[in-house]
Design a protein that fits this description.
single chain; mainly alpha; Pectate Lyase C-like; elongated
Length: about 160
Amino acid sequence: MKSKILNATAFLFTLCVAMPAQAENPAHVKQLRETNLCQQCDLSGANLKGAHLIGADLRGANLKGATLESANLEGADLTNANLEGANFSKSYLNSASLNQANLRQVDFSKANLSFANLIGANLINANLDNANLLSADLRQADVASQTLETANLESARLPEGVNIE
């Protein structure tokens, strides 16, 4: 009997580990799509690829591991949001507010972050390969200079001590 229980437990554990968890709250995804307002929402793991979220209010939202590739978030407010591991490649975040956001391991490759506010954001291990950060404000952001090597930083305000040549 014990071996059957152990076998069943091992099988369920393997099944759970093999399948990625989708933790987003479907009601929150619907709310965002219908109202563009979703403060403190759980959108972790959500597929918002190509979404039009211009001016969306996502302050304090959890978008950990979400897919927002090619999405339009122009002027969106993502202040204090958790975006860890999210995919924003080729997204448009012109004039977005990402102040104090957790952007750890976010893929911003080929994204447009011109005029974005990233004051105090955590950009550790973020991918900014060929990202456009024209006139972006990165003061007090936690970022390694090598992360910014291929980004367009024309007129950007960089954190103290970070120099890109």
